[in-house]
Design goal:
heterodimer; A: 431 residues; alpha/beta; FAD/NAD(P)-binding domain; Enolase-like, domain 1; five-stranded parallel sheet; 24% helix; B: mainly alpha; Alpha-Beta Plaits; two-stranded antiparallel ribbon; flat; Electron_Trans/Redox (chain B); 4Fe-4S binding domain-containing protein (chain B)
Chain lengths: 431, 530
């Protein structure tokens, strides 16, 4: 019987295993050093905040794996030996494979800051990071977070939930401004401050200072300021977790190089999820996409290939979501932080300052390109269809009610949005 | 089993500290309860009315002060910080103490009301029952009974903690309107209107005047004494009888078709009202395992069969004993019931065979069991003896085991330990019937939003009915479960806007996707069409 070994039990590896099992009886082994059972990494914050217990993050009951004959091995893989088709664990145990799938995810970026490996310094990615935070939190009088993205704001929310004062260092002029256009980014800045987070824009970390026991005691910023703190959160993005593959002969770039079939340069070895790097980016996507949804989709696709139906990875329209403290964010299609030459953007913000939408469309032919929505839920299916059919922006504005996914009885802002859109962009042509 | 992250430090969860104003609120609330406790211990207050009013005002003021301080000085949003860290909401000592006090209260209320001060011989009551006399005289013109005390406290709980719930979810209009609805129905329909009707008809024997409390939740509706009292209750009695029957056969099926069972369970019902308001702090304690789901199916359907058989038996006995005030003979009655159930079950089976899930199959089998038992009743029963059991004792056992022990003692008493919907989930026969309609014959569903689910588990954790919502959401599958009461909290706590309660056309209501939206279109077509 064919033996498929998957390294990593995150969303990519587990989705793959489940889908293989639906179609085949192959022996499946998942190897992970982080935790025995699959858990939803995206929910780590809710455990720290006391919304959930750790077991609530595990989407499948513990006997699910045995029932579906998916073997779980807890161990750290130290090497892959393609010539003998086996992997080696840190306890020197060897596991032979017929097909090997690398789904090892990411690790937090560290840019060589002095003091980055001190006690009290952590990213927010692994279960172990959560345990470390739990240990340090009781003695923490202030935390400093470095890196203004999705993980940074989650970590800030977590620490604030325990009334720990937080200083948030953001390199850019405004929160996540590489992705969010000015209006939305400013809105989130204000919301961060509303939650009593000390937001420092345009500020970089220079150094983390140690106390006599090797624990972080303060950070120094490029503004020359020293901020006393017991926890330093490093959340300046992530990069593929591939160090153990250096000598394996597998072609590596920033990540594990794969083609559209998610195959590496070595036969019978594949890579999916955060750690995979496309030789050439797909559409407007990046070659490496460290996103939950991407990991899942690659798992769904590769399962087809491994069960006898070779299938290229051809993701559909881009979508993503996040939650910034109390403000939910969804995006469908592409909206660029700075409008591209052929792109026109329409921005509406509610007077509460907690809801906004931005719609991007083609300047010339008014084709809808994408939407950012804040505090208003929208239907994935609606926008997916609109993007496929290349509908005009006017169609979307006209059908906002259909697109809306807010709970029942919520106040609709559609008329207000439509009115503003018409006053700004119609006159030229209406629906 | 992986170990959950434990924090042994007592200083770490700083958010758990209450500030002075929150403590003041708690103190005021407890002070009100303390005055009532003194009354229970037979401390005799001069000017009982003023002390009673004072204690009620004190409870309300305490809740308002506490809730305002807790929720209004922070931005609107989900407020679940520390839920699993706090002793009270994570089955700690305070939770057990509260559970024990509630349970004891119910035991005394149902079986030893004399300890509450009730004077069973028609004399003047003392204790907490006597303490409530002034309010009772104002509302219904009679001295208070233990049920009046219970009804008043119940209403206070729903109104006070409903206010707290509204502040907690003030960003969510669905929750706001829904909570106002349960508060309104409790105060008006369950409490004020029946009491005032009682005052206007002082000479009539008791029958239920709560329009919304329908059979089989109101299990004594068809009991002999109750039917008689309604028959002899003049226009009001006849109205209650006909409205009660119309609720069962006409109003409730129509509303359930359009809105799902939520129109009742989380918008109108008193048990649901208490669970949603007073029980909100414990909703996450419901058990989400498949084992619990199995137990749920067995239990709720056993109660369903029990309640039907008990009711059929008492009506049968009633018809045997009172041919003069009956429209129909007992034979006609049994055959009517059997015919109705066969048509009902048969139609559902013929048209909905493909949409049956395990819950629905169990409900259908329960109905078949009821049909068979009914026929047995007809052929093997005398006037009193139903299948060799006395119908009165059947009725009493139901009242004891289900009406009192299950719905009261376990249902509410165990809130802090097993969650706030134990009764609704494992015991309520009404919920079982509405659940069948919801599953097979309703426009209601919870829609999932394409591929946006991140499997975080907030929805499942906060589902008071123990539904593993995530297991559906992460497959992009609509949630169409018999047990869902439509409280809407899963949609509220979802951080990615994945869930939405909707009433829409029945087409495509029950769906299932292998490959989620967002992936390769051709692949989705290929795999999902299979």
């Amino acid at each position: 019987m064919e033996h498929i070994v998957i390294i990593g039990n995150g969303i990519a590896g587990v989705t793959l295993a489940r889908h293989i099992r639906k179609k085949s009886d192959s022996k499946i082994t998942i190897v992970s050093s982080e935790n025995e059972f699959f858990f939803s990494r995206t929910a780590l914050m809710y455990v720290f905040m006391g919304h959930m217990k750790f077991e609530h993050m595990q989407p499948y009951e513990n006997d699910f794996w045995k029932k579906n004959k998916i073997d779980l091995v807890q161990g750290l893989v130290t090497a892959v030996i393609p010539t003998s088709k086996e992997i080696i664990l840190s306890n020197n145990e060897k596991i032979a494979y017929d097909k090997l799938v690398l789904a090892t995810g990411s690790k937090p970026n560290k840019y060589g800051w002095p003091g980055q490996d001190l006690e009290g310094v952590t990213g927010l990615y692994h279960k172990q990071d959560l345990e470390a935070l739990e240990n340090w939190a009781p003695k923490t009088k202030r935390a400093v977070i470095v890196g203004g993205g999705l993980i940074g704001i989650e970590l800030a929310e977590m620490l604030r939930s325990r009334n720990i004062p937080v200083t948030f260092l953001v390199r850019e002029q405004s929160f996540w401004s590489g992705v969010l256009p000015f209006g939305e980014s400013q809105m989130i800045n204000r919301h961060i401050q509303e939650h009593h987070i000390d937001l420092r824009l345009d500020t970089n970390l220079v150094e983390i200072l140690s106390d006599e026991k090797g624990h972080a005691r303060a950070v120094v910023t490029d503004k020359g300021e020293t901020i006393e703190c017991e926890i330093v959160g490093l959340t300046a993005g992530v990069s593929p977790n591939i160090d153990f593959l250096k000598d394996s002969g597998i072609e590596l770039g920033k990540g594990i190089k794969v083609n559209r079939y998610l195959e590496t340069n070595i036969k019978d070895i594949y890579a999916i999820g955060d750690c995979a790097e496309q030789h050439e980016a797909i559409d407007l996507r990046r070659p490496i996409e460290a996103v939950w949804y991407t990991g899942r989709m690659m798992g769904e696709v590769l399962a087809q290939t491994l069960t006898g139906m070779p299938t290229a990875y051809k993701p559909g329209h881009w979508f993503n979501s996040a939650k910034f403290l109390d403000i939910e964010y969804q995006t469908y299609g592409w909206v660029w932080a700075t409008a591209k030459a052929d792109e026109e953007q329409f921005y509406w913000e509610h007077k509460s300052g907690k809801k906004a939408i931005r719609i991007s469309f083609d300047k010339k032919d008014r084709t809808f390109l994408g939407i950012n929505t804040f505090g208003i839920r929208m239907r994935h299916e609606f926008f997916d269809t609109v993007l496929t059919k290349k509908e005009k922006v006017d169609y979307v504005i006209h059908h906002l009610a259909e697109a809306n996914f807010d709970p029942e009885l919520y106040t609709s802002h559609n008329q207000e949005i439509q009115k503003q859109f018409i006053s700004q962009f119609v006159g030229v042509k209406t629906t | 089993m992986s170990k959950s992250v434990k924090n042994i430090s007592i200083a770490s969860h700083e958010n758990m500290q209450m500030d002075g104003i929150q403590k003041l609120g708690i103190t005021l609330g407890l002070l009100g309860l303390f005055i009532m406790t003194l009354a229970l211990l037979n401390v005799s207050f001069p000017n009982k009315g003023i002390w009673l009013a004072g204690s009620i005002v004190s409870i309300f003021t305490g809740i308002v002060v506490y809730a305002n301080r807790t929720y209004l000085n922070q931005p609107e949003g989900i407020k679940n910080n520390g839920v699993w860290h706090k002793d009270f909401t994570n089955k700690g000592t305070w939770a057990w103490m509260t559970g024990i006090i509630l349970t004891s209260f119910y035991i005394v209320l149902y079986w030893f009301p004399q300890y509450l001060g009730l004077n069973g011989d028609g004399g003047k009551s003392t204790g907490i029952v006597g303490f409530f006399d002034p309010l009772s005289y104002i509302l219904n013109g009679k001295a208070a009974s233990q049920w009046f005390v219970y009804g008043t406290l119940y209403t206070i709980a729903i109104l006070g903690l409903g206010y707290k719930f509204i502040l907690k979810y003030r960003h969510n209009k669905y929750q706001l309107v829904r909570t106002l609805s349960v508060m309104f129905f409790q105060l008006g329909f369950a409490f004020l209107i029946p009491e005032i009707l009682e005052k206007l008809n002082p000479e009539k024997a008791y029958f239920a005047k709560d329009l919304k409390n329908m059979w089989p939740l109101n299990y004594y509706f068809f009991n002999e004494w109750h039917l008689k009292n309604m028959f002899e209750g003049g226009n009001l009695g006849m109205f209650m009888l006909f409205f009660g029957i119309a609720m069962i056969f006409i109003i409730s099926p129509i509303l359930t078709y359009f809105y799902g069972k939520r129109w009742y369970c989380s918008w109108v019902c008193g048990c649901g009202g208490l669970a949603e308001t007073a029980g909100d702090s414990f909703r996450h304690l419901s058990n989400k395992t498949e084992t619990a789901w199995k137990i749920e199916r067995w239990m709720i359907h056993s109660v369903l069969v029990f309640s039907f058989v008990m009711t059929i038996a008492v009506i049968f006995t009633f018809l045997s004993n009172n041919p003069e005030i009956s429209f129909i003979t007992r034979e006609q009655f049994i055959w009517g019931i059997v015919a109705f159930l066969i048509v009902f079950t048969g139609t559902l089976y013929i048209f909905k065979r493909k949409e049956l899930d395990t819950d629905a199959v169990y409900t259908m089998l329960s109905l078949v069991a009821i049909i068979i038992i009914s026929l047995f009743i007809n052929y093997f029963s005398g006037n009193q003896n139903i299948l060799f059991i006395d119908s009165n004792s059947l009725r009493e056992w139901y009242g004891f085991a289900i009406g009192a022990a299950f719905s009261g003692v376990v249902g509410v008493g165990f809130y802090p330990i097993m969650g706030n919907r134990v009764w609704c989930r494992f015991g309520c026969p009404m919920a079982a019937i509405l659940g069948l309609q919801q599953r097979l014959f309703s426009k209601f569903r919870i829609t999932t939003n394409g591929g946006q689910c991140i499997s975080c588990g907030n929805c499942s954790t906060y589902c008071e009915m123990g539904i593993d919502v995530r297991s559906y959401a992460q497959k992009g599958e609509n949630i169409v479960r018999s047990s869902c009461v439509g409280c809407g909290i899963c949609a509220a706590v979802c951080p990615r806007g994945v869930l939405k309660l909707e009433n829409d056309t029945p087409a495509g209501r029950i769906n299932s996707n292998e490959i989620l939206l967002g992936n390769d279109v051709d692949l989705m077509d290929l795999i999902n069409q299979k």
